Amino acid sequence: MRFTVHKLLALAFVVPVAALAAVPEPAEFVVGVLPTYWPAKALVVGLERAHWSEVVPYLAVGTAYAAALLYGLARRFGSRLT
Prior knowledge:
Layout: H1 2-22, H2 25-28, H3 37-49, H4 52-81
Helix pairs in contact: 1-3, 3-4
């Protein structure tokens, strides 16, 4: 069971990087449902263009998306406790 969990977690990190490398930009935003996509995209944009004003929007979207996911999961967990 632990092996399966580790493989799924590895996919959560590999899929966004593979999408950044192989898929053109408008279509790669489909992978944006994975929270690890946004920091990876910010890194790629930062390395390609190297200006902070182009990196910040990706970090902001990633932070907001992760916060929304965390809020939803916390509410779901809280409802299970009561």
